[in-house]
Amino acid sequence: MMKQNERSIAFFATLLIVAGVSMLNLEQIDFTSNRIAYLSLFAGVFLAIIFFIMRYQNRSKDEEE
């Protein structure tokens, strides 16, 4: 079962990734034209990595009990 903080991190990670993808200007893919979109994508991926690390740690603790 997911805890509230895990659910929040997963939600914001998904929100940032979707916002970043939808803001990308694919006609001009360079960083200067898409700075906010790329930052949103990187922040979302960073939060997703944190989420998976937390899930793995909590699953290991639950299996020990």
Architecture overview:
This protein has 65 residues and is mostly helical. The protein has one domain (4-64). Helix content is 77%, strand content 0%. The chain has two helices and no strands. It has helices spanning 4-23, 35-64. The model has no long low-confidence stretch (mean pLDDT 91).
Tags for this model:
mainly alpha, 65 residues
List the uncertain runs.
none
Helix content: over 70%
What is the count of structural domains? 1
> How would you spell out the order of helices and strands?
HH
Number of helices: 2
First and last CA, distance: 15 Å
Look at the helices and sheets and give the structural class. Answer: mainly alpha
SSE layout and pairing:
Blueprint lengths: L3 H20 L11 H30 L1
In short:
By secondary structure, the protein is mainly alpha-helical. It has two helices and no strands.
